[in-house]
Design brief:
Elements (H helix, E strand, L loop, with lengths): L3 E7 L13 H16 L2 E7 L3 E2 L4 E2 L2 E5 L2 E5 L7 E4 L3 H6 L1 H8 L4 E2 L2 H7 L2 H8 L6 E4 L2 H8 L6 E6 L9 E4 H6 L6 E5 L16 E8 L2 E9 L13 E5 L6 H12 L8 E8 L5 E7 L5 H6 L2 H13 L2
Parallel strand pairs: 1-2, 1-7, 7-8
Antiparallel strand pairs: 2-5, 3-4, 5-6, 9-12, 10-11, 10-12, 13-14, 13-16, 14-15, 16-17
């Protein structure tokens, strides 16, 4: 039986590089789990969105992983399964094309879901009940006006688009007002998560991330800030795997209500990030519709990796 081609599509062009992954953890993750694709009857390719030939529905060249080594092929690759992993801003430029591709072949991660959920303004409009008070700020004057409405001495600034903690500022309000900011941004009331996850003895500023495929929980991890209030792994946060069965009941109640608002989307994968108040109330920080996999190499195990990849392939 002919193996199906799973083609993961990234932004940029790395053809002149020695390997297709700059991030060592991401590289290790795929190198340790790609044999799972082979065992399931798939061939895995990594390609740039720039190499796509729209007329032929093929990619002009590709990276492939053979016997533990990344190699390049100039052979035209026709995808049987399209895995969109492009950057958020680049994704918006390709949304129409991805919608058309979805009508022909399976696309891992529903492009309509990504289109809505990659925008943090849309997220707040949908999940306002579960999040901390938020304002869309277009100028310094608006920032001064709304920051007075937030409780406490600290506030949060977030870009409307973005991932990996890029552009997030969590600081004293007076310092934020002195910063040079590229508007528009989101201003959010700060949630003090210094008590960590309810039920855990460790008291440190931590959030809880649960990763879902087709709305089913696959794995979870905590991320603890290191010397600041930024928990993101790429910004220095310390990540640990967290058993699903230990997630507080109040969090599952919130998750159920959140998923009621997005259950009509199929074939989607995402994470929900929560902070907890001193009373143990879960507060949704954000929905991430492109959760990174490099954490799995750091905190997970082969069983978790296999579970995640099998869920993704099954979802289409």
């Amino acid at each position: 039986m002919k193996k199906q081609n799973v083609v993961m599509v990234y932004s940029g062009d790395d053809w002149d590089s020695e390997t297709p992954y700059k991030n060592l953890d991401t590289k290790k993750y795929y190198e340790s789990t790609l044999p799972l694709f082979e065992n399931k009857g798939f061939k895995f390719y990594k390609v740039s969105a720039r190499w796509y030939d729209e007329k032929k529905d093929t990619f002009k060249k590709a990276w492939k992983f053979d016997n533990g080594t990344w190699t390049k092929t100039n052979k035209s690759i026709k995808p049987d399964i399209y895995w969109d992993a492009t950057e958020t801003i680049k994704f918006y430029n390709r949304y129409k094309l991805l919608s058309e591709i979805k009508n022909k072949i399976p696309v891992i991660n529903n492009p309509h879901f990504r289109y809505i959920m990659s925008n943090k303004v849309f997220q707040y409009a949908i999940f306002k009940k579960f999040m901390s008070p938020t304002w869309i700020v277009h100028s310094k004057a608006e920032l001064k006006k709304h920051i007075r409405k937030t409780k406490g001495d600290i506030a949060v600034i977030k870009p409307i688009y973005g991932h990996g903690g890029n552009g997030v500022v969590v600081e004293n309000k007076s310092k934020i007002l002195k910063k040079r900011i590229e508007y528009p941004v989101l201003l959010q009331e700060f949630i003090n998560g210094e008590d960590g996850i309810p039920g855990r003895k460790e008291k440190a500023f931590s959030d809880l991330r649960i990763v879902f495929v087709n709305h089913k929980p696959i794995y979870a991890n905590t991320r603890t800030a290191h010397g600041n209030y930024i928990t993101n792994f790429h910004a220095g946060g310390i990540a640990r795997e967290f058993p699903l069965k230990q997630i507080p009941k109040k969090t599952w109640v919130s998750i159920k209500k959140i998923q009621e608002k997005i259950k009509h989307f199929d074939n989607c994968h995402y994470s929900l990030d929560f902070l907890f108040t001193k009373t143990g109330k879960p507060v949704l920080v954000e929905l991430n519709c492109k959760p990174g996999v490099d954490l799995l190499n750091k905190i997970g195990n082969l069983k978790t990796n296999k579970k995640y990849l099998e869920a993704l392939l099954k979802s289409i």
